[in-house]
Amino acid sequence: MAWGDRSQSFATFLILCPTSFFLGILFSLFPYDYPLLWTAFPPSDANFQTLETHLRFLHASPPIIPRILHIVIAVGLLGFFIKLYRPSESNMLFDGASLVLYMCGFVIYMANIIKGLRVVSGGKYDVELVEGEIAVGVKGTLPGEENPLGRDDSLKVLSASNTILALVLVGVLVLQAGQWYAERKQSQEVDQIRKERAAAGKGNLGTQRNGNGKKKV
User: Fold this and answer.
1) What angle do CA 22, 8, 86 make, to 5 degrees?
2) Which of 11, 129, 163, 202 satisfies CB 3.0 to 4.6 Å to 83 for a cystine?
3) Environment class of residue 69 by beta-carbon count within 10 Å: exposed (0-12), middle (13-18) or buried (19+)?
């Protein structure tokens, strides 16, 4: 196996492991998110209270926990940078799209989840996180006149962000699997063409030998 193939395989490993790690974290949050989004019955106050307590516990975790999380994020980005260094057509298509999805997930994490955790941990749902922040897209809205979300809606937004993030990460895995399948099929086709050419070469060589033998006789 060439060095390029080994580096690509190692880079794929660096992408798949963090992506699967994040999906595992989101799956552990699914029991808390499920009653808020995926049931036909309206969520009870106990469901919101359970999720709120869990999120506050997560936000109050020791600093080593978010540091490990951010290191894992960086490992995934390193894998993309290795695969996109001197990229082939396959890398540009599959890895480029995977990197876009990965960065979309990072934006969701930074913009929705971290901000939501701060709001939940502070317990001040009826005030803005940033003083003087104007509601985006609302013309004529002055600081202090916004209509921020309450506790229930804020927790639902966090749960929905987890779901969107999970779908984005699944998309990364699907694209990586698609790249593996496409490269495997291409390798099989190349091997088949080589075998056919080798067989044709042997047939031509045998014909030439038979012709030389008849001339000698």
Assistant:
1) 110
2) 11
3) middle
Residue 133 phi/psi, 5-degree rounding, is: -70, 130
pLDDT digits (tens, 9 = 90+) for 139-175: 455 555 556 678 888 899 999 999 999 999 999 999 9
HEC assignment per residue over the chain: CCHHHHHHHHHHHHHHHHHHHHHHHHHHHHHHHHHHHCCCCCCCHHHHHHHHHHHHHHHCCCCHHHHHHHHHHHHHHHHHHHHCCCCCHHHHHHHHHHHHHHHHHHHHHHHHHHHHHHHHHHCCCCCCCCCCCCCCCCCCCCCCCCCCCCHHHHHHHHHHHHHHHHHHHHHHHHHHHHHHHHHHHHHHHHHHHHHHHHHHHHHHHHHHHHHHHHHHC
Q: 94 and 87 in contact (C-beta within 8 Å)?
A: no
How many angstroms separate the CA atoms of 104 and 114, rounded?
14
Which of these, 71, 75, 30, lies nearest to 167 by C-alpha position?
Answer: 30
Cβ atoms of 94 and 159 closer than 8 Å:
no
Residue 6 near residue 17 (C-beta atoms within 8 A): no
Q: How far is 104 from 36, CA to CA, in rounded Å? A: 24
Tell me the pLDDT tens digit for each residue of 3-36. Answer: 456 678 888 999 999 999 999 999 999 999 999 9
